[in-house]
Amino acid sequence: MTTFGIVVGGGPAPGINGVIGAATILARQNGANVIGLRQGFHWLMQGDTSHSQELHARQVAQLHEQGGSVLQTSRANPTKKPEDLERVVRALSSLGIDRLISIGGDDTCHSARCVGEAAGDRLSIVHVPKTIDNDLPLPVGIPTFGYETARETAARILTTLLEDARTTTRWYLVVLMGRNAGHLAQGAAQSAGATVTLVAEEFPQGPIRLDTVARIVEGTIVRRTAGGEPHGVIVLAEGIGDRLDPADLADLPDVPLDEHGHVRLAELPLGKLVRDRVAQRLTQVGIATTLVAKDVGYELRCVPPNAFDQEYTRDLGAGAVRTLLAGGSNLMITRQSHEIVEIPFDEILDPRTGRTRVRLLDVSDAAYRTARALQVRLEPHDLASAQLVDAIAEATTLNPSAVRKRYAGTS
To answer: According to the model, what pLDDT value does residue 258 have?
Structure first.
């Protein structure tokens, strides 16, 4: 009898349970067994099959309404050691699993692909892309599941903070999740109407200096203050921290890495680093204000999925089962124009690294240009306005000439 295995890796995202539920229901309808594998590859890497459970249609009927993952998740990486990979293959075989559905981001996709290669024709495998970062290589306009729910939730938080900032006359520096890409930060901030948003993609390639970020934030605060609105919400994409110049991190204790070798950005105090540097710069120009650093990320990952992600993930789960039953393997499952479209693993790899490509935010497209135009920034060309320069000079201890000199490079 055909036996499906379902494994979840990486960070949580709204909609995981929708994939699990739909895949279980459709597989059972087709006479197959379904086994859920708890905590990703963690136990399988040890050859331990006791942390698995049979899944039945009745128990997952309303699962798509719930956040989190009934199978939990982990970032365990079976690709580091050949013996770990072999233990995973043997464990799956001992459970009778001949078809595997992996749910996760780029690291989980890489792990699943390696497991499939190690198992050969003993195992067919498909991957369902999941991340609130929206950074997997899907076609333009196709979000990863969980992103829309996370964006909606983050936008509500930012809207509340905007009102709090206005009410209390203060500034919030909000760091939003997104390791490599600024989709979530930009999408939520644009929806909420945040004062300004900084994403890593807007900076030239190479390390980003902390003072460069602080100078832009300072320019926004100075401009708003000069305009009689000394409050707002500044959104920083988490990925900026991943590209900070090492010289700006020299005074920090050892920054921990996850099992895939990535810096744990949630433990990097990006907001506080920027806040402290901005506070120093504002003191130099005579502006006293309250700056509050706040991280937003974990709050978004396990909320119940919205209607879009409920429908989306059920389609993906069913599509994964249909693809495997039809003999497909080594494929990523996507939904495009309400049709399931399979993308071969080879087409989503970065030829330089051999790993899954990352979809960065396109800062050249119309959507970003519109979002940027609606932000409050002190652009270099703004300094041609004598009225604005005089207003900034009045709000600070700078004279008009010093204003132009200090902010000439701000953008």
So the answer is: 58
CA dihedral 159, 163, 166, 167 (to 10 degrees): -160
- What percent of the chain is helix, strand and coil (3-state, nearest 5)? 45, 15, 35
Q: Which DSSP category does 343 fall into?
A: E
Q: How far apart are CA 73 and CA 42, in angstroms?
A: 9
Residue the block writes with tokens 């996850």: 258
C-alpha distances in angstroms, 182 versus 59, 264, 311, 387? 37, 17, 25, 34
Predicted confidence (pLDDT) per residue in 367-380, tens digit = 999 999 999 999 99
The torsion angle over the Cα atoms of residues 222, 228, 230 and 232, rounded to 10 degrees, is -100
- The torsion defined by the Cα of 84, 16, 342 and 337, in degrees rounded to 10, comes to -160
- Please list, in sequence order, all residues whose beta carbon lies within 8 angstroms of the beta carbon of residue 154, skipping any fewer than 6 positions away: 176, 184, 188, 192, 296, 300
- Give burial (CB, 10 Å; 0-12/13-18/19+) of 346: exposed
- For the annotated catalytic residues, the residue numbers are 133
Which residues lie closer than 8 Å to 370 by C-beta, 6 or more apart? none
Domains with residue ranges and CATH for the chain: 3-145+305-348 (3.40.50.450), 148-300+378-407 (3.40.50.460)
Torsions phi, psi for 257 (to 5 deg): -110, 155
Q: Is the pLDDT of residue 105 over 60?
A: yes
Buried b (16+ CB within 10 A) or exposed e, 89-113: bebbeebebbbbbbbbbbbbbbbbb
What are 19-31's pLDDT values in tens digits?
A: 999 999 999 999 9
282 contacts 219 by C-beta, under 8 angstroms: no
Which of the four pLDDT bands, split at 50, 70 and 90, describes residue 259?
low
Kindly tell me if the per-residue pLDDT of 263 is higher than 60: no
> Could you tell me the pLDDT band of residue 268, with boundaries at 50, 70 and 90?
confident
Neighbouring C-alpha atoms within 13 Å toward the C-beta of 323: 28
Question: Residue 298: is its pLDDT beyond 70?
Answer: yes
Q: Please tell me the distance from the alpha carbon of residue 72 to that of residue 10, in angstroms, as a whole number.
A: 10
